[in-house]
Amino acid sequence: MSKNKLAFYTILCLVMGSCREKPVQPSADVPKITMIDAAMAEIVDSTASIEVLAEGFNWSEGPLWLSAQNMLIFTDVPENTVYSWDEKKGKQVYLKPSGYTLITGTEKREGANGLALDPQGRLVLCQHGNRRVARMEAPLESPQDTFSWLAASYKGKKLNSPNDLQIMADGEIFFTDPPYGLPGGDQDTAKALRFNGVYRLGVNGEVILLDSLLTRPNGIILTPDARTMIVANSDPEKAIWMKYTLDENRKVTDRTLWADKTDLVKAGKKGLPDGLKLSRKGHVFATGPGGVLVFSLDGKWLGTIETGQATANCALDAEEKYLYMTADDYLMRVRLR
């Protein structure tokens, strides 16, 4: 880097409150807030800085805020690692291996993806490599790679590679199961199921199929009453989010298109529909083409937090003061109103 470029970059870092070791990207990819609807101004300031908190990951994913520890944990899926980040210590390895423990020789498979806490405060992981939904059998303060398998198959056939999840107050788990953890994807010889599903794991251990029609089911959220579910489909040819109405027994009674941003993918925006988070105010933060798209619960697009990277997932802290974002090889955050 030339001295002039270095001086310019240093000034930019000071303005944005964050520095990286490499030059800023072309202007089209510089992080920024795009306002689509006036309601976006109530969620985040148009001039809010998008901070880079850590970098150097292969593919960062699955952010989860741990309130008691006042820190964020998140996954690096290809590296089979969970990291932690807090204000004092920054980035640290939290758990390794995270999602592929059946290792033989030099074999390498992807680790954990989505993370969540169950009602007892235990860490539950979607394990790509092990092809299971698992619970860590160790305290959050002293993580260890000891797991109990919660879901591994559907009707006797092995799951593809559980990806993302939401756990309800009664302990039921809703999760998605695309083929991303299989080296050959849909064509992998180890793929036992002919579809990629959305499931509910009952407290009795039964795995119940909710949808088998999405090509790439990914991020998932439910409203607190478990009557509405939204699932992202990370397919560049069909970059959509589907909305499901559930009855009192949590069975699907209606399935409708909630949002379609395939046009943004075709226009060259980085990223696909992926992780989702629902705020207490009813705002949906949906990673997708361009960064984190912000919607109202009825599917109205309010604006985008443009990270400049393909963005995998996001998480809110306990006070919903910050939105944390895993974006390719970065961990980022933005302050909310």
Secondary structure layout plus pairing:
Elements: H1 3-16, E1 32-35, E2 50-55, E3 60-66, E4 71-76, E5 81-86, E6 90-95, E7 112-117, E8 123-127, E9 132-136, E10 147-151, E11 153-154, E12 157-158, E13 165-167, E14 173-177, E15 197-201, E16 207-211, E17 217-222, E18 228-235, E19 238-246, E20 252-260, H2 262-266, E21 276-278, E22 283-288, E23 291-296, E24 301-306, E25 311-316, E26 322-327, E27 330-335
Q: Could you please describe the fold and organization of this structure?
A:
The structure is a single chain. This protein has 337 residues and is mostly beta strands. Helix content is 6%, strand content 44%. The protein contains two helices and 27 strands. It has a five-stranded antiparallel sheet with strand order 1-24-23-22-21, with no helix packed on it. The protein has a four-stranded antiparallel sheet with strand order 2-27-26-25, with no helix packed on it. The longest helix is centred in the N-terminal third of the chain and has 14 residues, at 3-16. 44% of the residues are buried. Residues 1-27 have low confidence and may be disordered.
